[in-house]
Specification:
259 residues, alpha/beta, Rossmann fold, 3-stranded antiparallel beta sheet, 8 helices, binds 2-phosphoglycolic acid
Amino acid sequence: MAEVIIVESREAAGALVADAIVRLVRGNPEAVLGLATGSTPLPVYEALRARVGELDLSKVRGFALDEYVGIDPRHPESYRSVITREVVEPLGLDPRRVRVPDGSLDGIEHHGSDYEEAIGEAGGIDLQILGIGTDGHIGFNEPGSSFASITRVKTLTQQTRDDNARFFDSVDDVPMHCITQGLGTILRARHLVLLAFGEGKAAAVAGAVEGPVTASLPGSAIQLHPRASVVVDEAAASRLRFAEYYRYTYDNKPDWQVL
Ligand code: PGA
């Protein structure tokens, strides 16, 4: 099962995951990061930013999880723009080493397989940062997504469009389609780090960590992964049946065993 770490704040979660990334990059300056967008990963990027002076991230390679289809890449809410603004520029990554799935309509039939090929050529993803949607999606793999799926076009659920309306002028401006790494793609990353904060995520987190493994809750795919870490605040952990055991496990974690 996943290792579940319940922390007191988003900042604490960000610091913990940033530490894992720092260790990874110290060991391999060309490490490959799987980058998530949305509100959830921001504390990780903020914590990393505070460490930029002591760490050179310029050789790190990055692959974003997803992108909207048909959005102008210069739109401030395209994930290309978000990754540039939140990750590449503040952390000093080389933009040529960071890819976002191509959501342009021209050639959309092969953008997914091109992306898979690029991830393969980079040697695969070392550490994949994940958020989780209120409907249980990871990446933009909505309920029903195959556990074997690769990067492809999906239709967003209305729930996801409503959740993401806060980034746009209105819900009608949220694109209907996306291109996302598949669950199969995500499961091939060597380490999954899923973060979630707030009561609104509690049901999705409980389903992902403790529920049946089912395509109806795509986040439950993490139970199939040999190395998955779930970092949540108290509110997001509030529906976990074995929360006490997770705390006990973490409190008694051997020093040599890091995130
Ligand atoms: P959020 O989105 O981080 O903005 O809550 C998570 C997700 O949809 O994966």
